[in-house]
Amino acid sequence: MNNNSNEKVDLIRGDPKIAIRAIAWPMVLTLVLNMIYNMVDRIWVAGLGSDPLAALGFVTPLFIIVGGLANGFGAGANSLISRYIGADDKHNATNSAWHGVLIALIISLAIPIILLPCLNQILTIMGAGSVLTYAKPYAAIIIIGSFTIVFNGILSSELRAEGDVKRATIALTFTGILNIIIDPIFIYTLGWGVDGAAIATILSALAATLLMIYWMFIKKDTYVNLEKSEFNYNNKILKQLISVSLPASVEQIIISLISIIMNAMLITVANTTVVAAYTAAWSIIQVGIMPAVGIGTAAITIAGVAYGARDYEKLKAACFYAIKLGLIISFIITIILEIFAPQVAFIFSYSSTSENLGNLITEILRIIAIFILGVPVGLSCASVFQGMGKGTISLILTILRELVLVLVFAFVFTFLFSIGAYGIYYGLVLGSIIGSIIALGAFLVYYDRIKKFRNYE
């Protein structure tokens, strides 16, 4: 380990505001670029017509599930490593990183074995039956190459857990830039269409995987020492890692489930053109929430270190600062999208085959842009709970926010009030905002409890 690694660990043990800013901004850049490269797929595919674009919309939840497993177990590794760093226990921090790598191997093998044999049925259930010609090969390529997504999620989280956000950012940023460059080549120049978009995505992700493997296993200059001799299978570590990872992964799956249900509801009350427009608008919203996601991801590390050190004031400061920073940025993004919605929508309706989507995307985008304002509060609170190792609480809050409230409001507005697709958009926004307020209340209650217990010690 070098002095630079020591400085990174000192950073995450210091002022939570400084640490969150230091970790969040590179993370935000990474997430935005990665969301942009996912959006670039849609932009280029939109030139092929509304059906290929709708196909990507139907497959996206499956893509999110794979990424969700990676990010969920990455969050578990991040939480556990950072807590051991906070407790000044380097050996168990290193062993936790090794257990994260072991889980990455298992998940990478399991995903294609489970999903590929029943891919037709899965896509049909997800509503992609009418565009199966486009959806199936795209999904199959993503599933086959899913090991890159899994390892990128877990290895980058392990780097961030020790404050090494710079290299995690470099690897994932390189992925995004590479995909943006090769996407049109594979789709149009080589004539591979939708399949080319999937191949470009996986090849770009592979570049980041190889880069992080080099740093962590060959160069070996990280805080955690990934020598084979440092691995010691430990049931306690595995259980602690899974206690955060599984709920965090389920949270991501719930978000994917919402997308599946929203698509199914849309196809019930509208058509594939509306699904294509919603897919485009939602991809823009996903980029818009990335600053809040990056700040929340940073809060996992800082909260884990503070909780491991039993510094509860720093824990509260991390949560509140993450919320404040996220809200400021989210408000600015929302205003920009409301004003420039037509211009943003044009990037998905530039061709003669997709020009009919422009006005529809603009209308949807202006409604669901408000969703961005609800994200920082709920996400920051959930991230802090993950950092503390309280994955189940985070999961319950996510289920309430993303599944129960959103679906209840969407169903009521769409079917009981009979306002069609608009009900889905309104339900998405209102459910998320109310759920986030509840999440903040839950954090304040939990913080009061642990502070009282500390006073009794």
Structure, explained:
This protein has 457 residues and is mainly alpha-helical. The protein has one domain (3-450). It has 17 helices and no strands. The chain has helices at 3-13, 16-46, 50-86, 90-115, 119-125, 132-144, 146-161, 165-189, 193-219, 235-269, 272-288, 290-308, 312-346, 358-368, 371-387, 391-416, 421-456. Helix 3 (50-86) packs parallel to helix 11 and helix 6 (132-144) runs parallel beside helix 9 (193-219). It is globular, with a radius of gyration of 21 Å.
SSE sequence, one letter per element: HHHHHHHHHHHHHHHHH
Shape estimate: globular
* SS class: mainly alpha
What percent of the residues sit in helical stretches (DSSP H or I)?
Answer: over 70%
Largest sheet: none
How would you classify the quaternary structure? single chain
Strand-helix topology:
Layout: H1 3-13, H2 16-46, H3 50-86, H4 90-115, H5 119-125, H6 132-144, H7 146-161, H8 165-189, H9 193-219, H10 235-269, H11 272-288, H12 290-308, H13 312-346, H14 358-368, H15 371-387, H16 391-416, H17 421-456
Helix pairs in contact: 2-8, 2-9, 2-11, 2-12, 3-4, 3-6, 3-7, 3-10, 3-11, 3-12, 4-7, 5-6, 6-9, 7-8, 7-9, 8-9, 10-16, 11-13, 11-14, 12-13, 12-15, 13-14, 13-15, 15-16, 15-17, 16-17
Essential attributes:
457 residues, mainly alpha, 17 helices, 85% helix
Task: Quickly describe the structure.
The protein is mostly helical and 457 residues long. The protein has helices spanning 3-13, 16-46, 50-86, 90-115, 119-125, 132-144, 146-161, 165-189, 193-219, 235-269, 272-288, 290-308, 312-346, 358-368, 371-387, 391-416, 421-456.
